[in-house]
Specification:
Belongs to the thioredoxin family. GO terms for molecular function: protein-disulfide reductase activity. It comes from Dolichospermum compactum NIES-806. This is Thioredoxin domain-containing protein. Keywords: Redox-active center. The chain is an alpha/beta fold. The protein has one domain: 3-Layer(aba) Sandwich (Glutaredoxin). The protein is 48% helix and 21% strand. The chain contains five helices and five strands; from the N terminus they run E-H-E-H-E-H-E-E-H-H. Strands 1-3-2-4-5 form a five-stranded mixed sheet. A hairpin with a 2-residue loop joins strand 4 and strand 5. The chain is globular, with a radius of gyration of 16 Å. It starts with a strand and ends with a helix.
Amino acid sequence: MVLSVNERTFTQEVLESPVPVLVNFEAPWCGLCRIIHPLLSQFQTQCGDELKLVGVNADQNFKLSNTYRLKSLPTLLLIEKGIVRQRLEGFRSKDDLRLALEAIRLTYTSQEKIDTAEVRSQESGVRR
């Protein structure tokens, strides 16, 4: 189950979270929001405690919607230590979203892969 967050709880649950948080801005009338729910639930299960998934009703939390300049729903923000690291909006299909979520999951749930990628990019920078 996705934790529902509002303007009152956003700072504590998202901005001050010790782990990265994927914030799903949605609305009850948004068909695509409902369609992606199973995919987001699966993503949350795969990530375990290394990433947190929360939902925000954009209609009921207008200040947050304005603060993060939502242009369309659903909009997903990956927030780490209070900073927006990635913004996902305007998906063309469930597969687009699935690929983006998989990239996030691999980045944030496998420290060894991150370290290896950083070493490779540093090595490639030195060779040039």
